[in-house]
Specification:
By secondary structure, the chain is of the alpha+beta class. The chain has ten helices and twelve strands. Helix 6 runs antiparallel to helix 7.
Length: 320
């Protein structure tokens, strides 16, 4: 997740809706689509690409896909960030034009995950029904390789977000007032209260260590929340990644119609570019309730309300 906010207000957004929509179309790519001229980034110069066999053949794809977003629930959207006067960034309280992105490590991360899952299954023999729980020991060569490759993918995911926001900032002709960014679906080495070192894998979870900033998104018509972690050891310093689904993707496609989505978008004055029925607002839980349930895990610093949303359509394969 990554959010940037700009010294522009709600009036600017309403006056320039059509321009902002075109700006998203010109500066973001989803699914199989990539930029004709991808930007360079230092992450692509890492020696790790040459040192680990599985990465050598992935560098070209990584260079092609950098700055783009995956399919599924990945998005880039314009909206309004509301903050109070007494805020983390010493800004006047009010509404600011903001950009929120949700993406990952694209084909690079997906192939790393597939490769080391196969390796784990070969080395860690479990009953058939538990085969997908196979793991790699960090004290082995394969485990160390995976750890290094995974962290490279994490840095690459961050680079994707930074390039998305750089492109948009350049097109807006504005410098962001702030940036809030956090990983999810990732693993961290952390030390518990008893002093033991562990690996914490936050799948569908947001880091919420003491004073750690992050973004918990809603749906395309529901607000997202800028949060500061409280450091709850009971939750392993974690909070939710989002609202969570009420129905599966296949169920959503069987139940929800384009007309229903259109009506829901109109109700909240949201414009949508792309997006499949499986990502309709109605397939998600009420994010406000979810935030109330985790008040012991995070403090809310600001609220992001989406207004112009771009997502992939139904025709692209999901990637991490």
């Amino acid at each position: 997740m990554c959010l940037t906010a700009y010294p522009l207000d709600e009036k600017f957004l309403e006056r320039h809706r059509s321009n902002l929509k075109q700006l998203l179309l010109s500066n973001t790519c989803f699914g199989r689509e990539t930029f004709k001229r991808p930007k360079e980034h230092e992450v692509l110069d890492r020696k790790t690409f040459d040192e680990i066999a599985v990465l050598r053949n992935l560098k070209g794809k990584a260079a092609t896909q950098i700055g783009s977003s995956g399919s599924g629930n990945h998005f880039v959207e314009f909206g309004l960030m509301e903050i109070d006067d007494n805020n983390e960034w010493n800004l006047p309280g009010g509404n600011y034009l903001a950009v929120l992105s949700h993406s990952g490590s694209r084909g690079l991360g997906a192939e790393i995950a597939r490769h080391y899952t196969r390796v784990a299954k070969q080395l860690c023999h479990l009953p058939k029904e538990a085969a997908n729980l196979a793991w790699l020991d960090l004290n082995t060569e394969a485990g160390q390789e995976y750890w290094i490759a995974m962290n490279l993918a994490g840095d690459y995911a961050s680079a994707n977000h930074h390039q998305i926001h750089e492109r948009i900032a350049e097109s807006l002709g504005e410098k962001p007032l702030l940036m809030v960014e956090n990983h999810h679906n990732f693993a961290w080495k952390e030390t518990l209260q008893d002093g033991s070192e562990v690996i914490v894998h936050r799948k569908g979870a947001t880091p919420a260590g003491k004073n750690v900033l992050g973004v918990i998104p809603g749906s395309m018509t529901a607000p997202g929340f800028i949060v500061r972690g409280k450091g709850s050891t009971a939750s392993l310093n974690s909070a939710s990644h989002g609202a969570g689904r009420l129905m599966s993707r296949s169920a959503a496609k069987n139940v929800i119609t384009k007309k229903m989505v259109k009506q829901e978008l109109q109700k909240y004055s949201v414009e949508l570019i792309g997006g499949g029925l499986d990502e309709a607002p109605m397939v998600y839980k009420d994010i406000r309730n979810v935030m109330r349930y985790q008040h012991e895990l995070v403090d809310v610093l600001g609220v992001f309300t989406p207004k112009i949303v771009r997502m992939c359509g139904d025709d692209s394969p999901a990637e991490d």
